[in-house]
Amino acid sequence: MAGRTVLKEKSRAGSFFSATLVLWTVSLWFEILFDRRFELLYLVFGALFYQSANSAIRFLISKEPLVVNTAVSLLHSIITSASVLFVLANRWLSHGSDGMFEHSQLFGGTWPWAYAALCFSCGYFAYDQWDMLQYRLYSGWIPAILVHHLVLLICFTLALYRNVTINYLILTLICELHSIFLHVRRLRRMAGVRDAESFIVKVEWTLNWLTFTFARFVPHILITAKLIMDASKFDKGVELPLALFGMAAMNLLNVFLGIDLFNAVKKESNYQKNDHLHHE
């Protein structure tokens, strides 16, 4: 009975989020074909690239959907992190830091390659939404991961359609540096490497905490503070409320993620201690 309930929940959630993905796709192609926004093709290229990576990993490494999905997520985090760092370094080296973080730049400006990088990353979220729906890699009546991706797709594409807040969104994506180690940890555990005392696991956890702090937690707080300080510079509209709401949600999720990481460290340490006691 419980199994049937779970399947019904997954089916309902799948139907809803599949419909939203179809609507999003129609919207995207309308912009590309009828409004002649061909720069949005970077988004399509991104989705196709990550789908191709999925197929390659499935063929060469593993056919397990969760392993494949996590491996592609790791690839996305690496590429997006590199893209964000490239965009920032390129802007810094070309024009220096003068005015780089002014409101006019962050809200209405677009650093070189920032638009393409954001499109490509957005393409990943479309691919990943489809992959999770296809293989039912979610749970619950309202799956948090599908909601997360839907919100990102809406926010990113609205920004891309209107060509505003591109640089703000690029800055938020610096958190993908931390996501690298989240995905590495997941793949490591899937591979059965769970020795909390091993050197590689200790290094991974060190990098996990460092990037969580300096690539996710602190940057998102600084972005939120910048939005609040520049609130009077926003035109009347939905941009500021949406941005503040989005950053508030991100900061809240970061707190929960930090708690989850802390609990994961404790769990792995306790597992290791119990394992040693069991073998004594």
From TrEMBL:
InterPro entries, sorted: TLC-dom, TLCD
Topological type in the membrane: Multi-pass membrane protein
Source organism superkingdom: Eukaryota
Membrane-spanning residues: 12-34, 40-61, 66-89, 109-127, 139-160, 166-184, 205-228, 240-262
Membrane recorded as keyword: yes
Pfam families xrefs: TRAM_LAG1_CLN8
Domain TLC: 62-270
Keywords: Membrane, Transmembrane, Transmembrane helix
Principal location listed in the UniProt entry: membrane
Gene Ontology, cellular component aspect: plasma membrane
Compartments, record wording: Membrane
Gene Ontology process terms (BP): membrane assembly; phospholipid homeostasis; plasma membrane organization; regulation of membrane lipid distribution
Transcription regulation among keywords: no
Name of the protein in its database record: TLC domain-containing protein 2
Organism of this sequence: Cucurbita argyrosperma subsp. sororia
